[in-house]
Write a structure and sequence with these properties.
This protein is of the alpha+beta class. 52% of the residues lie in helices and 19% in strands. It has 4 helices and 4 strands. A 4-stranded antiparallel sheet has the order 1-2-3-4. Helix 1 runs antiparallel to helix 2. The radius of gyration is 14 Å and the shape is globular. The termini are far apart.
């Protein structure tokens, strides 16, 4: 079986990059849709959970200043302490990735 596709997105500053999976299971799509519906109720906390959900399911690797962060627990811990600028960049990457790989999935 061939490896699942991945895509790497460098930051505009060139100091970071995210590598994301190019596949989402049907179950994950269903769970995400439910999370996003809760977010559409104009609840900022739910919207942040939708971003975190996609991050947790899609990000394989995050390199920051040439230091790789891998493993779900470490990636999620680093995401939770990300700066405002890093979070904005991550949202942009998630939106770009979904548009390219999952056009039927609404990115937050």
């Amino acid at each position: 079986m061939p490896d699942a596709p991945q895509a790497t997105y460098p930051s505009t500053e060139g100091d970071s990059s995210l590598t994301l999976r190019g596949v989402i299971s049907p179950k994950t799509r269903t769970q995400y849709a439910a999370t996003l519906r809760a977010a559409s109720a104009d609840n900022e906390d739910a919207w942040h959970r939708a971003v975190e959900f996609l991050f947790e399911r899609l990000v394989v690797d995050w390199v920051i200043h040439d230091v790789p962060v891998g493993g779900q627990r470490d990636l999620l811990a680093r995401f939770r302490v990300a700066s405002t600028d890093e979070r904005a960049w991550i949202r942009d990457v998630l939106r770009e990735h979904c548009a390219e790989f999952f056009p039927d999935v609404e990115a937050p």
